[in-house]
Amino acid sequence: MKGKKLKDKKILVVFYSRNGNTRKVGHEIARILNGDVCEIYSGNYNGILGYIKAGYQAVKNKKPLIKFDKNSDDYNLIILGTPNWGSKMASPVRTFVYGREFKKIGYFCLQRGRGGEKLLDELDNLCGKSEAKMIINERDIRDGSYIKKINEFCWKIRGKR
Ligand SMILES: Cc1cc2nc3c(=O)[nH]c(=O)nc-3n(C[C@H](O)[C@H](O)[C@H](O)COP(=O)(O)O)c2cc1C
């Protein structure tokens, strides 16, 4: 019954990823929940200059130009993923959420190891209280424990359907 209900719900997993970690987790969540994927693209954040630009934009709440190819209004539930940039969401994700209304939303963030709670609290304030939240550290990816975290996150989302 729950499975059928979940199928009836349209889920969109939206994320920005600079180095691939958030992308990897986003695709896994979409696979488990049978959702669509929407990757956000933005300017060049490569190399050391890109790192500095990313940090500056995140801390200053900048909203750079972005591209993406799905309409979030077509979906009942959005799952939003971002890397942690200085305890803030990645600036392309900030552009995405600003001025947008979400019926239901869940968040996940990828990080080296600290600051993600603050970032997810800000998302809760900006976009509405989430159905589920998850922080994945790079160490969780290295030792494989991220799979368990993702499954728990997806179970939580399923439980709310
Ligand atoms: C500008 C910048 C700032 C960052 N700040 C933090 C931080 O405050 N805490 C942390 O744990 N990781 C931080 N990181 C590391 C990323 O969150 C981490 O490498 C993440 O896995 C990257 O995700 P991605 O591969 O999807 O881009 C930062 C990375 C960048 C580029």
Short description:
The chain has 161 residues and is of the alpha/beta class. It contains seven helices and six strands; from the N terminus they run H-E-H-E-H-E-E-H-E-H-E-H-H. It has helices spanning 2-8, 21-33, 47-59, 91-97, 116-127, 138-143, 146-160; strands at 11-15, 36-39, 77-85, 88-89, 104-111, 133-137.
Question: What can you see in these coordinates?
Answer:
This protein is an alpha/beta fold. It has one domain: Rossmann fold (3-Layer(aba) Sandwich), CATH 3.40.50. Helices cover 45% and strands 20% of the residues. It has seven helices and six strands. Strands 1, 2, 3, 4, 5 and 6 form a six-stranded mixed sheet that branches. Helix 2 links the parallel strand 1 and strand 2. Helix 2 packs across helix 7. The longest helix is centred in the C-terminal third of the chain and has 15 residues. The protein is globular. The mean pLDDT is 93. Bound molecules: flavin mononucleotide.
Rounded radius of gyration (Å): 15 Å
CATH superfamily: Flavodoxin domain
Secondary-structure element pattern, one letter each: HEHEHEEHEHEHH
CATH topology type: Rossmann fold
Number of DSSP strands? 6
Assembly type of the chains comes to single chain
Hetero compounds? flavin mononucleotide
Question: What's the overall average pLDDT, rounded?
Answer: 93
What does the largest sheet look like?
6 strands, mixed
- Classified by CATH, the class is Alpha Beta
For the record, the CATH architecture stands as 3-Layer(aba) Sandwich
Note the beta-strand portion. 15-25%
Distance between the termini: 10 Å
What's the number of helices? 7
Low-confidence stretches: none
SS-based structural class?
alpha/beta
Molecular shape: globular
Residue share in helices? 40-55%
How many separate domains?
1
